[in-house]
Specification:
Layout: E1 2-7, E2 16-21, E3 24-28, E4 58-61, H1 67-70, E5 82-85, H2 86-99, H3 105-118, E6 122-124, E7 130-132, E8 135-142, E9 149-156, E10 159-163, H4 177-184, E11 190-194, H5 208-221, E12 224-228, H6 234-246, E13 250-254, H7 255-268, E14 289-292, H8 306-313, E15 315-319, H9 323-332, E16 338-342, H10 358-364, E17 369-371, H11 380-390, E18 395-399, H12 406-410, E19 425-426
Parallel strand pairs: 3-4, 4-5, 5-6, 10-11, 11-18, 12-15, 12-16, 13-14, 13-15, 16-17
Antiparallel strand pairs: 1-2, 1-19, 2-3, 7-8, 8-9, 9-10
Helix pairs in contact: 2-3, 2-7, 4-11, 5-6
The structure holds zinc ion (ZN) (2 copies).
One zinc ion (ZN) binds at residues 13, 66, 68-69, 166, 400.
Length: 427
């Protein structure tokens, strides 16, 4: 059996893992590099069984829909089978459909190709075992800032490997992480683990629950609340819905965001009331859900008495950095009762960060914003807990990290196996 990390041993994002056994190959994740790493994207050699050659004995498994894990699927060989979480796929399709309408023609074509590839992907559910020849893959549902994210147990030749993907221990499913690993991740030989937060040893990470409570307080104190958040950060958005309902504010988002939320409600409201929104509520009361419709970059049109109704009760509105929302922000920021919250990683609007996004930064320049965010990745305590629980017999392979060497300092007595991109490890 062989493990090859084609990319991602020394960087966050763009990880590609291959696990090979007797000619059968399971690949995990095939995404784009995060901004700041892009120059090396052209250096990636063709990968036999993924981007070239015979794919009859291989398959690609996707941990979650973030672009750095799935964004390059359209560059795989056409017949390569791809597997991803069922709800994750539906959400990703909504996102890519919206992106395929953006004005930049090259970008639009790229997203159209991805949509075509999405149609061929096989959706799976948690714990559904999938066999690729002699290799068995079992997906374990995990908590991350992407919804319907998975760890994978990959088994062959009597060996068991746990690939964590991106995960955390401070989301709404935080209590489930360790019991799940105790139950399913027994007898593990190797862990291939993410380490995004490895350089932040002292970061005390706020839980999603704490963040939701803080939002609730803010919504009670301020009438008009605009929240800039990733449209696919599902747990955060449902938390904002519950926070605004408890604060007696209306919850407002546009038609695209509504489609995504409805997908999640349809598939998950039976499992948890957290994902249950009454979208069609007719009786006016505070905490109601409203969908705004718009066409292209046009301003929103408020039907009937909706605008005075929202003005009267106050609201939490999910926004993105486009002209339609700009019009609303310009209008409401004249009122002292208005707050704008930035609920994403600060790096996108920090000009010292490699992921700095000029457009987003410019969009927020005229306004005063408040940062309200918590990480999508495990802190060091959680990583320790996971490693001690699973206690892999042969060692830990760090990926999705800028500092794999830090694993040695932090996770004694576990054996850390440092490998380089593209160098096979016989196991
Ligand atoms: Zn990632
Ligand atoms: Zn991610």
């Amino acid at each position: 059996m062989k493990i090859i990390i084609h990319r991602g041993t020394h960087q966050i994002g763009g990880c590609i893992t291959e696990i090979e056994s007797n000619g059968y190959k399971v690949f995990i994740d095939f995404g784009e590099q995060l901004p700041g790493n892009e120059s090396a994207d052209t250096d990636l050699p063709a990968i036999e069984g993924l981007t070239s050659g015979d794919v009859s004995k291989s398959a690609l498994f996707i941990t979650h829909y973030h672009g750095d894990h799935i964004g390059k699927i359209s560059e795989t060989v056409k017949d390569l089978p791809i597997y991803a979480g069922k709800t994750a796929l539906e959400i990703y399709k909504c996102l890519e459909t919206r992106l395929s309408y953006i004005p930049d023609e090259n970008e639009a074509v790229k997203h159209k190709k991805i949509i075509e590839r999405i149609k061929t992907i096989n959706g799976f559910e948690a714990l559904q075992q999938i066999k690729i020849g002699e290799i068995t893959v079992t997906p374990l549902f995990t908590d991350h800032s992407a919804f319907d994210a998975y760890m994978f147990i990959v088994e062959a030749e009597g060996k068991r490997i746990l690939h964590t993907g991106d995960f955390r221990g401070h989301g709404f499913r935080k209590k489930g992480l360790i019991p799940m690993l105790k139950k399913y991740a027994k007898d593990i030989d190797y862990i291939i683990s993410e380490g995004s937060n490895i350089l932040r040893p002292n970061a005390t990470i706020q839980t999603e629950q704490e963040l939701q409570k803080e939002f609730e307080k803010k919504f009670k104190n301020n009438k008009y609340n605009f929240v800039f958040v990733s449209s696919t950060n599902i747990d955060r958005i449902f938390a904002l819905y519950h926070a605004s309902k408890r604060a007696g504010r209306c919850f407002v988002c546009d038609d695209y965001q509504t489609d995504i939320l409805k997908t999640v409600s349809k598939n998950h409201k039976k499992r948890s009331v957290f994902y249950n929104i009454n979208y069609e509520q007719k009786i006016p009361h505070a905490g109601r859900f409203f969908e705004l419709k718009r066409h292209g970059g046009q301003p929103f049109s408020f039907v009937g008495n909706l605008k005075p109704y929202l003005d009267n009760h106050g609201f939490c509105m999910i926004i993105r950095s486009n002209p339609a929302f700009r019009v609303l922000l310009d209008e409401y920021t004249k009122n002292a009762d208005t707050k704008i919250y930035y609920s994403m990683w600060k790096g996108y609007i920090d000009n010292k960060s490699p992921a700095f996004n000029d457009n987003t930064a410019k969009f927020f320049e005229p306004y005063e914003i408040e940062f309200m965010h918590t990480s999508g990745h495990a802190d060091i305590e959680t990583l320790k807990n996971v490693f001690n629980t699973v206690n892999p017999k042969c060692g830990i392979i760090p990926i999705h990290t800028e500092a794999p060497e830090k694993f040695n300092e932090l996770f004694l007595p576990h054996k850390i196996i440092p490998i380089k991109d593209g160098n096979p490890l016989e196991v």
